[in-house]
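Long-time lurker. I teach an intro course on protein structure, and each term I like to show students one example going from raw sequence to a predicted 3D structure in token notation. This year I'd like something fresh instead of my usual example. Would anyone be willing to generate the tokens for the chain below so I can use it in lecture? Attribution to the forum is fine with me.
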Amino acid sequence: MATRIGGADLALRQALGDEPSVAILKEVIADEREHYQTLGNLISFLDLNRDGRRRQISSMGHGDHDHDHD
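-- Reply from a regular --
Happy to contribute to a lecture. Here you go:
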């Protein structure tokens, strides 16, 4: 991820001694890493819930079809 955010620009700023910009870029990279992890956890959570609902819905449908025709 660091190569996508900052990457060569961060290396250039370090080489030029632009420490304020380097500090900001490092903070942005850390924030983006945290956001990436949070989104990954959220996606995993939603996938688990969706799969659980599928199992629940499919189990509710078994054996109930005969009652519709009484």
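Some talking points for your students: The longest helix spans residues 19-61. Helices lie at 7-16, 19-61.
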